[in-house]
Specification:
It is built from 13 helices and 12 strands. It has 311 residues and is α/β, with parallel strands linked by helices. The chain has 2 domains: 135 residues, Nucleotidyltransferase, domain 5 (2-Layer Sandwich), CATH 3.30.420; 149 residues, Nucleotidyltransferase, domain 5 (2-Layer Sandwich), CATH 3.30.420.150. The longest helix has 21 residues. The relative contact order is 0.17.
Length: 311
């Protein structure tokens, strides 16, 4: 079986096709193709409240390209989901309707709770009986979940994200509310609490902080090392981050704002280390498609293997 997913984020749009293999209780999601395009819809939306005509035109070209790739790979099913930028854009729903009418492609604009739920489904394989705070930092929002003994005890989405913060459009009131809520949940959870980081920036922060370019399983980074890594990156200019640290151009400017969010949440939750499993919304979408097409419900104890690189 071949499945496809598109994650329309505020900073970038991610396309993936995976081949699904079910062998003796292990569900293997083998990546066949992955494309990341830095359209940065949130740059328009968080400033002017809508997606500009220029980015809308590029958006249509991207969706048409992804539809063609799905056809070429002969996927059995696919799904396209949009998050913070499109759900906040005044013309987000209109653009989704145009895409459906002109290209025959359905775009599902999901809320923060649904986004967190989809990511959570692929995180269960990473959890044990300890306490965890899961931090998913996007361009426009941050989803936070607390887990105790493999059970989710609290979840919340905040309008604080890397692109929003880069442009000074995050509010002190939202930060204060996030701080209050995290401390409230931390009080309820048994200690110690381990952080789990997902989102486009944390993988790069982990790589630079640990020197682990192979991205091994169960990769961990301490709060102290994450703080040191942020300081090192902040010492480079934007151009140096691109040319010396080899960051994508749309990663080099948001990585410091994103690291601010991870670090503050870790401090407030009193988490001294973070697991970086390299899982995200697209993986949750793949799992949902697998369950929809096989009529099999994958439980928390099911063995999952999300193949991270093309072979």
């Amino acid at each position: 079986m071949k499945l496809g997913a598109v994650d329309i984020g505020s900073n970038a749009i991610r396309f993936q096709v995976s081949k699904i293999i079910d062998v003796n209780g292990m569900v293997l999601f083998k990546k066949m193709e992955y494309v990341r395009f830095p359209l940065r819809l949130g740059e328009d939306v968080f400033k002017i409240g809508e997606i500009s005509a220029g980015k809308e035109a590029k958006f249509f070209k991207l969706i048409q390209t992804f539809k063609n790739l799905f056809d070429l790979y002969e996927v059995d099913d696919y799904i396209i989901c949009a998050t913070s930028a499109m759900r906040e854009a005044r013309n987000g729903k209109d653009i989704a309707f145009k895409v459906k009418d002109l290209l025959g492609v359905q775009i599902d604009i999901i809320d923060g709770d649904k986004e967190a739920e989809l990511i959570n489904t692929v995180l269960y394989n990473e959890l044990d009986d300890s306490s965890y705070v899961h931090i998913d930092v996007g361009g426009g929002s941050t989803e936070i979940n607390f887990f105790v003994n493999k059970q989710k005890i609290a979840t919340r989405s905040f309008k604080i994200g890397s692109v929003r913060r880069l442009n000074g459009l995050d509010t002190p009131e939202e930060w204060e509310e996030m701080h209050r809520w995290i401390e409230e949940q931390t009080f309820k959870a048994p200690k110690p609490i381990t952080a789990i980081g997902t989102g486009g920036n944390i993988g790069k922060l982990y790589e630079l902080g640990s020197g682990d370019k192979n991205k091994k399983e169960k990769q961990m980074i301490s709060l102290k090392k994450l703080e040191e890594t942020q300081q090192i990156i902040a010492g480079y200019t934007y151009e140096e981050r691109v040319n010396i640290l080899m960051m994508n151009t749309d990663r080099a400017d948001v990585i410091i704002p994103a690291s601010d969010i991870y670090l503050n949440i870790m401090r407030w939750a009193k988490a001294t280390k973070m697991m970086v499993p390299e899982l995200g919304l697209k993986d949750g979408l793949m799992l949902m498609l697998y369950e929809r097409n096989t009529q099999k419900s994958v439980g928390a104890n099911q063995v999952l293997n999300f193949n991270k690189y093309k072979k």
